[in-house]
Amino acid sequence: MRSRTVHLPAGRGPREILLAAGEEAGRPPDVVLAFLPPEQRLRETLGALTALWPDALRFGCESVTQFADAETTSAGTVQLFWLDNPRRHRATVEVIPGTHGEPPAARRVEAVARRIAAADGALLLVDGLRFPAEGFLADLRRTLVSTPPFVAGGLASHQEPLTRAGARVFVGDRVLPSAALVVTLHGFNMQVEVVRGWTPASPVYTVTRAAAGGVVHEIDGEPAAGWYRRFFTLDGELAPMPAAANRFPLIIEGPRPDRQGLYRSMRLFDDPPGTVAFLGDVETGDHVRLGMGNDRSLARAAARLTAGTEPEAAILFSCMGREAVLGDRAGDEGAAVREALGGVPLSGFFTCGEIGPTPRGNLAFYNLTAILVLLREVDA
Amino acid sequence: MTPGPHELDNAILRNLLTETTRAYEGQVAELHAEKELAQVTLASIGDGVLATDEKGCLKYLNPVAEKLTGWDRAEALGRPLPEIFHLTGQGGEREDIAPLLCRCLEEGQSFRLAERVTLERSDGRRYAIESTCSPIRSSEGRTVGAVLVFQDVSDKRLMALQLAHQATHDELTGLLNRQAFDGHLQRALEEARSGATAHALCYMDLDQFKLVNDTCGHLAGDELLCRVAALIQDAVRDTDLVARLGGDEFAVLLSRCTLAEAERRAGELHHAFQQLRFTWRDKTFAVGASLGLVPITPELRTVAHLLSAADHACYAAKDKGRNRVQVYREDDATFVRRHGEMSWVARIQQTLEEDRFRLFAQQIQPLSPEAPPGLYFEVLLRMVEGDGRIHLPSDFLRAAERYGLMRAIDRWVIRRAIRTLRDQPAPFLDLLRLCAINLSPVSLGDEDFQDFLTGELAGSGVPAGKLCFEITETAAIESLPQAQRLMAGLAAQGVRFALDDFGTGMSSYGYLKELPVSFLKIDGKLVKDIVTDPLDRAMVESINQVGHVMGIQTVAEGVASAAVVERLKALGVDYAQGNWISPPRPLESSPLQPSLPDDIRAVPL
Lengths: 380, 605
Hints:
Distance between the termini of chain A: 14 Å
Largest sheet of chain B: 8 strands, antiparallel
Oligomer: heterodimer
Structural class of chain B: alpha+beta
């Protein structure tokens, strides 16, 4: 397989840049993966891709910040793939349409699960606002009776304030709000790494009351908001929440092994009063603690990655929460990954949540991690 | 001024640090409390606890361990466990704990110390202990030391020894008991069979024990047995084994002893018995013993044979006048006769089981015209063998008495007699004046006998007053207190008693005042020559006169002619009994029909 990442710099039309990149291989790419900012840039780029390579499998999602090899950009990135033998190595995209916030029907989930089980790996790109990604993953986990092949991906991100656009997925030239894409891969070796970079910063506590939707009522018998106030009140003033709290993510430390090592970003604080809501689920009985990290620790974690078995392409799904912590050094993470991989073509974006495996092989919904997907064609 | 992100983060981190420190302090306090609790617990339990590190050096010992090892905590900590934990095995040999500890630490194996080890304290004092040693594992499963838990089981082991002693020894005298002695006899027999060595068994039966027991009570009897036990132990060698086999029977296994040597030692024992004077309050008894001596030879195949031979020898010693030593010899006439008795035992038991005893009745004839008319007779026992042969009591009663069968025979006779009387057609019971039944000395001393008789009479319709038990003068005197009790009890119910065979034994009129006797049965030996022998006639006359003075009626036994009857009538004897008057007839099969000479008044039935 040959791959190339195309950085679409602001101020230049995407068509010329893409055309130049596509001609290098002497034939049109077989697969085109794009992470694009919304609105005008999205429409221009999708139009160009359709015009240039109408027969290629084209898909991707909206995002605010993208990775393009060692660069971090907000103008969009496109990764082109030329497969050695499209009969043996192929990718298939299935669209799970929007359900207005409800998880997909069980029959649909079962069909998807069957396809994933038969594949060598799968990428999930999900509307980051309107599709119930966590519920879908939970249903998928239950349906995939045995340990699934690698499944990784991210939730499309959006800019504040939110408009109708943003956080959507697209296939071909169609932009699909409230949908998810399941890309199954055949004839590939897919490797997934979970990058963390946080260290424990508090004793372990127990969630004593939690509800669906990541709402936590009590930690160690104390209202969850009060529990947070103990740490985040400075000179009698509460630090800005939830922004300050997301620099100190909630780490789930068990006791269930399949929940060990999950991270959670705070979504709402003291709303309703006393509660704290997270982007991912938190269950009653979870053992939790606060973690801490900074731009250096997150970048160091990325730099510690190893390339594994000679990947031919890489895709990075890093959490927007990490982007916030990295601040001015947001580009360091992508650059560190790129360097660690030794120049493997890399694309990706900062997500609204990541999908990846737990150490025990289960599907998990993460916050505040970076999920790196490494791909290499293999003969069956 | 609003803090920047770094200041904010640092401030939050300070809060987290404070909270973490507080939490860890709390956890440390909890751990400390748990450690305190664990230490208090370990200090409070009754077991000794030692803990070592992974090299086997002591890291902890609780107060009980300090006490049992004799090591002070400060001195012991850090030392290798084998240095302070000294064990000795059952035989007193040193047992090294180091190999076991190594296996525990290196292979992670728990072990339990062998039974019967003792722990030697630093001052030399020893404790019987039970102990287990287990590896201590870290949370990763690595063996980081060993813990040895041990208990002082000295009391428990002592109790076990005491129980074992109780199981093998006689509680009263402390001598070996029958069961334990049998084991030693078995080994002696095996050695005899292998020709390795010669042993002998000396069996002893006290001659006056019953007298002491009856006249002075059980406390005195027990004291006498203890004195005898001490006497025997003093008289034998340390290598000899002394046992109390039961009651007043003792035995000594004379180990590695020829017959000649055994005879000499038995003689010394006999001499010691002759010297023994037992005093209880104001009474002094000369306590003799009959000794049976048996050389243990291969011919005696089993312990039962051996004990039987010893019993025979002892019995022979008694038979020859008591208070002597009798050596067992297989072909001795005495023992042959005893063997004969033994064969009777089996036949009696079989006869009882097969209900082949039969009752006969012999008429007793009133000689006085004033005697109330009616039926008088004595019940007599006969043994019917499987082939129809009939044996008189004289054939088997000796064996029955010797081997404890008289109680069963007495009860069979009484039960059958009462049922036969009950089953006779009317007006038999109205006519019955006296049914005399012989009662053995054993039943005379049987405390359950009165209840038995009451039970048999109940509902039978036979009045107690129709029965008369014949007891021998000797039996009554030998068990005088019991006999008095039983006779008084039965007499109160209406039962009468006759002294049987009176006049030929150690007859003493004095006893007549002690016993509620209604009849004296004059021994037939005095009666048969009454016509020709003036001395016999004088004795019969004397007995008759004394009896009458005391209100006791007389019965002449063994009457064999009309002349004797005439003379008895002349002397005023009340009743006569004998084959000439009426031979015994089966009680069950034919109605009692007196066959009397013409000159005797017939008694209507």
